[in-house]
Write a structure and sequence with these properties.
single chain; 437 residues; alpha/beta; 4-stranded parallel beta sheet; 18 helices; 49% helix
């Protein structure tokens, strides 16, 4: 999300909770968005503004409909399409062909699809092969649990190529680091050991052609910058970044100097390190440096967490520096004797594809001005239906069937499987039956 908008929403959210003891603002991942929207509807909301990309608004609308609130409109911030390079990579014929190939060539296939995909992708996938969704927070536990219940399972992971390859790298690093059976059972999963982790790693088939354009920015030149100029810094890497960046963070994580995982994993790590430093009560000043290997939008939550920790501990001699590594393409020259370069490519304020501000151009369409326009139209009921009709989410599955099954039901099935797993910590029985039949 646009950093300015997220900052404003965070401030308004805090004030709402103080003044009205209710919450009409939620800053969440694509999975939790639908749950928060349902709660807001229960609290009397007459419309929902979904500030994300199109597949998020589509999913929120479907979840609301499943909970009896299909009559309440969901509005996007723009009348134009708000795309997602990762989601769109799973909508190609090549993705469906990869699924068909994986099903025909493997016994006990399970397709684990990243939550950041459209309902159509989830529906089509479900019609081809048993499918469960995952988030960056639970993808590893999903793989571990599925393989513990079905030892000879073959996992098809997509569409995020970097994330899939990084998970394979993570399992290899654990094995190469010499983790014994006891450590694996204690740290990863009680039913796993070195042999089962090796088997799981070897049975993961990663879709070869899908990535997020933002995380793609953390390429070779950025990695070189991190190695040469920030060797003393803590390094974080989202599961979606390219392998070189991931490997730096993975190596550092083995001795407590880095973290790999989801945005929530990164936030917890930074918060933990700041709390440790603030709790030492040392007299000398300390500056902790953190390389943020993910989308820049999460800096608002990091700043809030750090400030809260320093306030609560009454610490004034610890600083946290958040570093966004950039490549030379993300800098432009200016006519200034003292300031030779400034962030931003010469073509404007945006990012370079080699590594820059790490801000999603699609998410930036969710600006403060765009939200204000939506709010004004909602307030003016006469203008709402006219001005916001084009702001409704895509509805490509309405009234459609795939192999005789309602397409929306097929699209939500993988999400329900994941929710069941998150609640019970086991694979849903009917999913296991589909995989093994």
């Amino acid at each position: 999300m646009d950093v300015e908008l997220q900052s404003v929403l965070t401030a308004v959210q805090k004030q709402q909770q103080l003044d009205e003891n209710r919450n009409r603002i939620a800053i969440a991942d694509s999975l939790a968005m639908g749950d928060f929207a349902v709660k807001m509807c229960e609290d009397g909301a007459s419309s929902i503004a979904c500030l994300g990309v199109d597949f998020m608004a589509e999913s929120v609308s479907a979840i609301m409909s499943k909970n009896g609130y299909g009559h309440i409109p969901v509005y996007r911030a723009s009348s134009k399409p708000i795309g997602c390079s990762l989601s769109e990579s799973a909508e190609r014929e090549s993705y469906r062909a990869w699924l068909h190939k994986g099903k025909s060539e493997n016994t006990n296939p399970l397709h684990i699809v990243y939550i950041n995909t459209s309902l159509e992708t989830k529906a089509v996938s479900s019609s081809i092969v048993p499918t469960i969704t995952c988030t960056s927070s639970n993808v590893m536990s999903t793989m571990l649990q599925a393989s513990s219940e079905i030892p000879n399972i073959n996992i098809l992971y997509g569409p995020d190529t970097y994330m899939g390859n990084n998970l394979v790298t993570m399992f290899s690093t654990i094995l190469d680091a010499g983790w014994d059976d006891n450590r694996i059972a204690k740290t990863l999963h009680p039913e796993h050991n070195r042999e089962s982790i090796r088997r799981l790693r070897d049975n993961i088939d990663v879709y070869p052609d899908g990535n997020c354009i933002v995380h793609h920015m953390f390429g070779k030149e950025v990695v070189k910058t991190v190695k040469e100029q920030y060797d003393d810094a803590y390094v974080s890497a989202h599961l979606e970044v390219p392998g070189e960046m991931f490997e730096i963070a993975m190596e550092k994580s083995l001795n407590g100097k880095g973290v790999v995982g989801s945005t929530s994993d990164i936030l917890k790590f930074i918060s933990k390190k700041v709390l440790e430093a603030a709790s030492e009560n040392g007299k000398s000043s300390r500056r902790l440096k953190f390389i943020l290997g993910t989308e820049a939008g999460m800096v608002t939550s990091i700043v809030k967490s750090v400030q809260d920790i320093l306030d609560k501990t009454k610490c004034n001699n610890v600083e946290a520096e958040i570093i966004f590594p950039v490549s030379s393409e993300a800098m432009m020259g200016v006519d200034d004797d003292e300031l030779a370069v400034v962030p931003g490519v010469a073509g404007g304020e945006g990012c370079s594809t080699a590594g820059g501000c790490a801000t999603c151009p699609f998410m930036k369409m969710n600006s403060l001005d765009a939200l204000s326009d939506v709010v004004e139209s909602v307030i003016d009921k006469e203008q709402e239906k006219v001005n916001l009709k084009s702001h409704l989410p895509p509805n490509r599955l309405e009234g459609k069937k795939i192999n005789g099954v309602n397409a929306i039901d097929l699209g939500t099935e993988p999400i329900l499987y994941m929710r069941k797993f998150m609640t019970d910590s086991t694979m849903p029985a009917n999913l296991v039956k589909r995989i093994t039949s």
